[in-house]
Amino acid sequence: MTEAERIAALLDIVDGNRTQDADNSAQLVVFGLAERVGKAGRLRPTNAGWNAMGQQGRPFRADYG
To answer: Once rounded to an integer, what is the mean pLDDT over residues 24-44?
Structure first.
């Protein structure tokens, strides 16, 4: 998985308008860029995931709102 694919998969997780690829999203958990939360196993980026997105992820972070 390339860096661009990782960023695209992270953006898929945080942006509701994007279609999420389950295979790529699952790989993010292995890389430590995302974690599963709740009983449904929904994904959310870890701190490392937000840092990997850099400026591209900032508009999606609630604490920057």
So the answer is: 90
